[in-house]
Amino acid sequence: MDNFTFHNTTKIIFGKGSENRVGKEVSKYSKKILLHYGGGTIKKTGLYDRVVSSLKKSGVDYIELGGVNPNPKLSLVRDGIKICKENDINFILAVGGGSVIDSSKAISIGALYNGDVWDFYLGKARIKDSLPIGTILTIPAAGSESSTGSVITNEDGAYKRAVNSELIYPKFSILNPELAFTLPKYQVASGSADILAHLMERYFTNSQHVELMDRIIESTMKTVINNVSTVLSQADNYDSWAEIMWSGTVAHNNLLNTGRVGDWGSHDIEHELSGIYDVAHGAGLAVIFPAWMKYVYKHDINRFVQFAVRVWNVENSFNVPEKTAIEGIKKVEDFFKLIGLPTNLKELGITDDRLEEMASKATNSDSSTVGNFVKLGKEDVYSILKLAQEK
To answer: What is the distance between the alpha carbons of residues 163 and 127, in angstroms, rounded to a whole number?
Structure first.
């Protein structure tokens, strides 16, 4: 087990009707905030009215900025930064899924910076301060409600890039599984794939003697797998949604990082798909992750055997470990297909004409690598994209 420091400052408020506490929680930090959200869904479901009512009861004034789309855009982030600077906003409330929360985090660091917020995502500047944010989660998926990360897409060049800093942990996050009842099935499936990807990125590690976290990651994966089919057929099943929502948070709140170094190569590769083609992040991961597995599994076949046996209940062929490992990878593909996700690039509408471009952008024209389990250069990424195309 590797040395580690674990520190997560996000207060989690979980359960039925918990969004009604938002005014009280926000008022501890500010009486003038930016209310940030996506499209019109929160207004159709009545969540917007409940949030606004709670804010008003606590004497909190707000300026609205809606319009966040999946794969949140830099241009809207810049609009939010301008609003915050011109109106002395000192708190941001994100109401939505990971895209809204990531956009809010970007605004929070840009509002206290004199340069362009994109500098942080390019690694040209280091985060030294941020406005505090709170969240009301509506889509279990990204885990951004209790993470150090933010991912933003720059429309100029179609670059999707991330930052990480403990300074952007939300101060609080409200998680009510009831808010997920109205999600479209494809969004449910994509979100579940995103959660599983966060778990698998951590699971495939070169760190040794990490049994405790292995077991926790495995059980969290099995919990998601066991419950996603239920919510796809029973949209208002509170108990199954509760399992998935909490799994999504635990999957990405950095607890499961402890004592190990995860991979993250599949995420870096997928960012090029969703940056250029604007596909749902979870759907892109459902295509890329099995292709990555096929390319790297021989690096540590025993870990892939363990994954197949413990997570997917594959019978262990002790004399032929490769057979067990490959069957585990097939189980991953079969599961994604079962819940209605694509299994190859063609199904995402991605042809082969930009594969080399994506491989080049992911690795900065082969000047850097992605991933830690196996470090991947440009040619490796291209090969994985070809595998994703051929499935």
So the answer is: 9
